[in-house]
Design brief:
This protein is mostly helical and 147 residues long. The chain has helices at residues 5-20, 29-36, 40-52, 77-85, 107-125, 128-138; strands at 56-59, 65-68. The longest helix is centred in the last third of the chain and has 19 residues, at 107-125. The termini are far apart.
C-alpha cells in the first residue's frame, strides 16, 4: 500500500491545523503552506474535499482561514486517509470475490486480509491530536541551546 502525496500532505496540513488552531480561530492556508512546505495552490486543492466532507470549515475574509469542525481527538487518521485516498485495499480479491477465480480457495487471501485489518486498526487508533502531540514532542524547544 502506497499513500499518495495528496494523502501525506493533507494529513500534515491537518496535523498543523490541530497544532496551531486556538479556540476555533481559523488558521490561514498561507501559514500552513509555509510551515509544512506545501505549495499554496496544491494545499488549496487538498483542502477542498476536506471542506466538502465536513472535517474542516472555511472562513473568508481578512481574518479567515480554515478550522477543524470538531476537536482533533475526534478525527481519526483512518477518516482522513479514506477521504483523501479513496477506498483502498491491498488486493482486489478482498473487495470482490469476482476479481479472482481462486478467492474461495486461496490461503494468501487470509494473509492480505489480516494485513489490511492491522493497517486499518493502526489508522483508526490514531487521531489528529495524537499526531499533533507527537510532532510537538519531536520539535526542539526554542529555549534549547546548542553548543
Amino acid at each position: 500500500m502506497k499513500l499518495s502525496t495528496k494523502t501525506r500532505y493533507g494529513t500534515r496540513a491537518l496535523m498543523d491545523l490541530a497544532m496551531h488552531q486556538r479556540g476555533g480561530t481559523p488558521v490561514s492556508l498561507k501559514d500552513i503552506s509555509e510551515r509544512q512546505e506545501i505549495s499554496l495552490s496544491y494545499l488549496e486543492h487538498i483542502i477542498t474535499p476536506l471542506i466538502k466532507a465536513g472535517i474542516i470549515n472555511s472562513t473568508r475574509g481578512s481574518k479567515g482561514g480554515i478550522a477543524l469542525s470538531r476537536p482533533a481527538r475526534q478525527i481519526t487518521i483512518k477518516e482522513v486517509v479514506d477521504l483523501l485516498e479513496g477506498p483502498s485495499t491491498l488486493v482486489e480479491c478482498l473487495v470482490s470475490s469476482k476479481a479472482c477465480h481462486r478467492s474461495s480457495l486461496c490461503a494468501t487471501q487470509d494473509l492480505w486480509n489480516e494485513i489490511s485489518k492491522a493497517i486499518d486498526g493502526v489508522l483508526e487508533s490514531m487521531t489528529l491530536q495524537d499526531l499533533a502531540d507527537k510532532q510537538i514532542n519531536n520539535t526542539p524547544s526554542a529555549e534549547m541551546y546548542f553548543i
